[in-house]
């Protein structure tokens, strides 16, 4: 329904990806990505303070919004609900992804340099951060709907938009985190580089989610969704191509 009339193109792309992902080099790369993602999940589980802090940030922000609107007798308007939701996700994404490369010690990075390829490192970080942000986004959406009501009329479109947003935030901020990790004042550089890159994607995400709140069909958001998919693919390709040069610097 979303990609109506584009069946031949999708089938052709599927054949290309099937050939690429079944080659020995791609299989080895996928294996390295999987091992690195397992390592990140184990580290996150052992150091649960950061994850608990992110969940606390989401919960406290939603509760403050509840105190500001609902307890004063006013219902939170749908545009304000939409804007506050993405603001919470944006700052949660920055806090979650910023530690991706900053928490890696120099000795561990040198060890990675000897056993895996740099493409596996950046793709593993992007995949792990995308899953982490998707989980945070779904928790925030559930808590939002419980506390502030659920004005979303097209839930499938909204969840699909959240998925694209999680992938977009993860891919962009992971590359920025890798660049910032090479600088001295990395936290400031992360914020300075990250927020301007997020603005075009954030505008598209807010537009699509507004359509989901209004109950519009997929066709009304097709161009914006395709643009988000294209942005995610471009950022992923740029990360894949440029990270090896950053890795060797």
TrEMBL record:
Chief place of localization: membrane
Transmembrane residue ranges: 16-37, 49-71, 83-102, 122-146, 158-181, 188-206, 226-247
Single GO biological process annotation from the record: cytochrome complex assembly
GO cellular component: membrane
Membrane-related topology note: Multi-pass membrane protein
InterPro entries xrefs: Cyt_c_biogenesis_CcmB (IPR003544)
GO MF entry, a single one: heme transmembrane transporter activity
Keywords assigned by UniProt, alphabetized: Membrane, Transmembrane, Transmembrane helix
A Pfam cross-reference name: CcmB
Compartments, as annotated in UniProt: Membrane
Domain of life (superkingdom): Bacteria
Family membership: Belongs to the CcmB/CycW/HelB family.
Identification of the protein by name: Heme exporter protein B
Record lineage: Bacteria, Pseudomonadati, Bacteroidota, Cytophagia, Cytophagales
